[in-house]
Amino acid sequence: MKIILLNILFISAIFAQSGLIVVGGLNQSKQTIEEDVDDLDIDYMNGYNLYVERSFGVARFGVGLNQRGVKLNQEVSDMGITISAAGEQTLNYLTLHAVYPYAIQEKITVFGGIQLGNGINGEAKIKQSISGSGLFDGTSVDSEEWDAEDMELEYGLFLGVDYMINEKIGVRASYFKGLSDIFEGATTKNNTISVSLLFNI
Which residues, at least 6 apart from 9, have a Cβ–Cβ distance to it below 8 Å? Predict the structure, then answer.
């Protein structure tokens, strides 16, 4: 993590001091799963975003970190035996984006473009419980970790709106719609809603 933060600071220096925007905030992410899975509840997972931006011509480019993920819950009952599973998946990305901003008012700017995500690492935790079987009743917890080689290059639409409180500080609401699968052979895509603070340097 320290190496990644140092890389962001280095890139910030390359972008130069003037016109730099620093953005940081919270992500609410979930995933769309194209395969039909019975009785599966898909819920939002909290994460973070941190990145820097700079305008070049009519476009704005940014680089940073995004944490996405999902919460999954499933319960199946048959012949008096109930099996329930609760999982949390966290995925960390180094992201690049390019957007076109359009000012609709003095303080309000909307933007749209693309975002690419290179996976850094990830983790899944699954808690499984069995009841009603007698001998096999109980709870188990499993975890699995991934590194960058396990994760596919992510790409998708990046849309949002900035509201400037004053010349230096503003608020951003944005949405990322993943168009690529997060793992090879998995028909699963990330979607993220973000609320962030932005600072003009």
Answer: none
The CA-atom distances, in angstroms, between 99 and each of 62, 91, 109 are 9, 23, 12
**Structural tokens at position 189:** 């895509």
Tens digit of pLDDT for each residue in 129-168?
Answer: 887 766 777 787 888 898 888 899 999 999 999 999 999 9
pLDDT for the residue 137: 74
Is the separation of the CB atoms in 174 and 156 below 8 Å? no
Strand partners, 29: 45, 192
Question: What one-letter code names the amino acid at 17?
Answer: Q
CA distance 8 to 63: 7
For 128-135, which contacts have Cβ atoms below 8 Å and span 24 or more sequence positions? 128/83, 128/84, 128/85, 129/82, 129/83, 129/84, 129/85, 130/81, 130/82, 130/83, 131/81, 131/82, 132/77, 132/80, 132/81, 132/82, 133/81
Angle at 104 between CA 100 and CA 110, to 5 degrees: 40
SS3 7: helix
CB 49 within 8 A of CB 69: no
Q: What is the pLDDT of residue 7?
A: 55
